[in-house]
Prior knowledge:
This protein has 2 domains: 24-118, Sandwich (Immunoglobulin-like); 130-806, Maltoporin, Chain A (Beta Barrel). Helices cover 5% and strands 67% of the residues. The chain has 5 helices and 46 strands. The longest helix has 15 residues, at 2-16. The radius of gyration is 28 Å and the shape is globular. The model is unreliable at 1-26, 115-126 and 792-810 (pLDDT under 50). This is TonB-dependent receptor. Keywords: Cell outer membrane, Membrane, Receptor. Residues 385-786 form the Outer membrane protein beta-barrel domain.
Amino acid sequence: xxxxxxxxxxxxxxxxxxxxxxxxxxxxxxxxxxxxxxxxxxxxxxxxxxxxxxxxxxxxxxxxxxxxxxxxxxxxxxxxxxxxxxxxxxxxxxxxxxxxxxxxxxxxxxxxxxxxxxxxxxxxxxxxxxxxxxxxxxxxxxxxxxxxxxxxxxxxxxxxxxxxxxxxxxxxxxxxxxxxxxxxxxxxxxxxxxxxxxxxxxxxxxxxxxxxxxxxxxxxxxxxxxxxxxxxxxxxxxxxxxxxxxxxxxxxxxxxxxxxxxxxxxxxxxxxxxxxxxxxxxxxxxxxxxxxxxxxxxxxxxxxxxxxxxxxxxxxxxxxxxxxxxxxxxxxxxxxxxxxxxxxxxxxxxxxxxxxxxxxxxxxxxxxxxxxxxxxxxxxxxxxxxxxxxxxxxxxxxxxxxxxxxxxxxxxxxxxxxxxxxxxxxxxxxxxxxxxxxxxxxxxxxxxxxxxxxxxxxxxxxxxxxxxxxxxxxxxxxxxxxxxxxxxxxxxxxxxxxxxxxxxxxxxxxxxxxxxxxxxxxxxxxxxxxxxxxxxxxxxxxxxxxxxxxxxxxxxxxxxxxxxxxxxxxxxxxxxxxxxxxxxxxxxxxxxxxxxxxxxxxxxxxxxxxxxxxxxxxxxxxxxxxxxxxxxxxxxxxxxxxxxxxxxxxxxxxxxxxxxxxxxxxxxxxxxxxxxxxxxxxxxxxxxxxxxxxxxxxxxxxxxxxxxxxxxxxxxxxxxxxxxxxxxxxxxxxxxxxxxxxxxxxxxxxxxxxxxxxxxxxxxxxxxxxxxxxxxxxxxxxxxxxxxxxxxxxxxxxxxxxxxxxxxxx
Length: 810
């Protein structure tokens, strides 16, 4: 704890660098919230106050992530307000009479899409790639040279505080239990299905990534560690515009990709569509050394394996919005994805036993084929009921997924004396389908004196059917049904209601408090075993956020919330899935939800530097547990509830402008993770200090050239039983736009030093296991994109500027 305190105080003292003279904010105060035609906040919008006679700039700011702005100045006289954002008609508010102490709340300011009256917008410097707000971090993906040709999972893994392991599981600040949203809507997928889905989604479709450590009560309480929200690209420009792209990736396996997007805005209709085809392929190299302690001595399993994975992905996304009447809109969205996968694996295991001169060798060949089809449909309504910001929104969603896989695991044991040996086979067929129906309504009502209230209701109904059929043959015999076959039906109903209240506690303090009630009714039914397991529970999830402005250079935010992660339907299924003859993955019908209490304090200094101190306590935390039977030398892997896990983290964010064309962003995070749980007859009581360092460099050289580099380092880390050794990697990319920015050519590479190799070990109870895995992430991609537009007379000129100007760029 001394280390945290010393680092915090020294860094805080270094950055503060301002006196008490700024503590008093005198003069005019103009506030407001800039929104689009659908009532959604418009962040990074320029707000300029100008002299009415000379039209010279008095002062200016850029809106925050919620579209909010505050202009403080000592001007006396007549002025007007000019608000501009790329893709929207400039907004002018004249007739402002300022006396040097004017206090005025302008309420919600609606920006109309379209650029008919705007022929040129000057953008000073570069858009910030990462923006830190009081309650979330926004990573701007659009225009990144590293995004072209990559997947949504790739760009999520490069976000601050996010770690994606070798299996595609997403962790936030060293914790599992992260929920991924797409445009504020849950995906309702298992971790494996979600990873495959995000690998199928091109990063080119993503506009930004919101990493929300402390969501308000408006969000579902699901996601003990926090929320990651993907904002997909939308285009509000009038007329017809779009793009066509193609690319290629090579990492030892060739993988092409191609796609197109089209946006049409005509009259009362706004329509967009994206169609993408991609192939994702890689080799996974795995080494596992397991030691078993027998009465007569030790036995070692030394396994070397290589797996080739190939997935062909087709992804379609479309949406349309119709203006019923002024400020009332009806819209629909559709997503369709199809994945076809092939996995071919070969592993050799040398098994040594006491008293044997030669090891027994196990050669396992795995041939697997899979397919997955997902359909998502949404119908929504947005109505702005008055001019002060009263708004009602409603959504009806339906998601359907159908997936199947068939794998044949052929195993042959042989020794030096018997080179041929006998062959066993395990045939596994897995058919799964689920249907999800959700409906919700949200209501926002601004009140007097900068207060507002949010209310909402939501219901979700989930039903899944999973049929696992296993057949086995022994010593060249025929395939016969295995007792581990199982059909599992899962039903989940969740009803929720929430309320949020926003107010100001004086001119320098804002308070948001909310409470969410969720009732869950979950039933798991093993049809094969004729067993039912029903869980019913109601929980309250409070959230509080207090934002305090000490002075112009220093703001503090305090956040507190309680959250839940429910067991996924796949985890509750009492299945037994063979990874190899001596390793199985098991479901756990006794798994219960995990609950987390999260506290965070954020310091923002000079509008750019950030220090965050956070603490989280999770009860019944999910943990992947390895169970080893020395007698049979069989290993089982299962998700279990750990009694308590605790996470203490301290994060420093330091953006730097080396030159107008070169910016950097550094993040240092220090974490202490503690795990405490009774596992069988042994007590797990371990702590691990982890340091994570992330550095991002963005360069704009002129004449259309851009470059980006991201480097990551993570020291030793722990996830339950397993300890991961330090790992580091570097990704980089460069792009060139030409022909008036209509064409863009990009080249980028991942894991340039071939260092993203995961190694670790388990030393717990009688378990003694070492693991090393490399997924051949090192790769190079090349992409070409052509953008077209019709019906617009709009151009953007670029010029570099000072730090102050960059703070006001759109």
